[in-house]
Amino acid sequence: MEGGRNQLNSGNGTGDNVVRSGFPLSFWEAAVGALVILGFAMGLLLVYLTLPASDYSFLKLPRNLEELQILRDHLETYTSDYTAQVLVGYCVVYVFMQTFMIPGTVFMSLLAGALFGVFGGVALVVFTATAGASSCFFLSKIVGRPLVFTLWPDKLVFFQEQVARRRERLLNYMLFLRLTPTLPNTFINVASPIVDVPYHIFLLATVIGLIPAAYITVKAGIALAELQSVTDLYDFNSIAAMFLIGVVSITPTLMGSNEQKKKASAAIE
Q1: Helix boundaries (H) for 167-198
Q2: pLDDT by 10-residue block (mean), the chain, 269 residues
Q3: Does the keyword Chaperone apply (predicted)?
């Protein structure tokens, strides 16, 4: 970890900022996080209060396909009669999970397909996932530095170096990261503001990069009863297609790096 700290301090000018904050969070940083959690809790409470009196014991975050099918069966009725409430509740839960890196958003994506079909489900998943990633981005900008450095010091060094090297074609690189498993999406959300990825590039790469995976997951959610395991979502063809798209997106960045090296060599000669 000490080596990572030294590398960050000697980086492209942002390293001092990365290690400026200590751990744990300061009072004001913790207060900001608490206010965000309170805001999400109030949103969910308001949705709950607008629903009719009933037994809502089935309302819980699904952790496996069996729980997801039970939730889908109950929500199908409410979706037709209380569409707005279901949509708002879904959005609040998904954004909350993305903001605080809570596992299980894949089940929420499957649920979107089961309840709203392919087109509506993909639009909903891309919207909520982008909103959650953006919320995580801005929250991390305020309170995330000590967390990222504590959890992922080596990944942070690697990410910072790659962003600095590919600054001129950063959108292509960020698209590549979204489309391939090079770095976890949760890490990208939290670390991007710390290594100075501009928000407009982060936003555009997130919106475009999430569409292929969202389509695959939402489409699988329509045939939820036939799904045996979450691992069945991504077969070889799906993974190969997403990787190919990722390679195409990073190609301009790699070509730009080679051109810069050639120019540098010519200048030395």
Answers
A1: 170-179, 185-191
A2: 50 43 61 82 80 72 89 86 87 91 92 93 96 92 85 92 91 88 90 94 93 88 80 64 61 52 47
A3: no
Residues in the chain: 269
Q: Phi and psi at residue 250, in whole multiples of 5°? A: -90, -15
One-letter amino acid at 229 equals S
Whose CA is closest to 40, among 125, 97, 83?
A: 97
Instruction: Give the residue from 104, 128, 139 showing the smallest Cα distance to 207.
Output: 128
Q: Give one word for 117, left, alpha or beta, with left for phi > 0 and alpha for psi -120 to 50.
A: left
Residue 21's pLDDT is 41
Contact in structure between 133 and 98 (CB atoms under 8 Å): yes
23's tokens: 């751990």
The per-residue pLDDT for 154 is 92
Token readout for 175 is: 């698209």
Q: Is 59 left (phi over 0), alpha (psi -120 to 50) or beta?
A: beta
Residue 60 token pair: 């819980």
HSE, side-chain direction, 13 A CA sphere, residue 187: 19
Q: What whole-number distance in Å separates Cα of residue 23 and Cα of residue 28?
A: 13
74, with CB counted inside 10 A (0-12, 13-18, 19+), is: middle
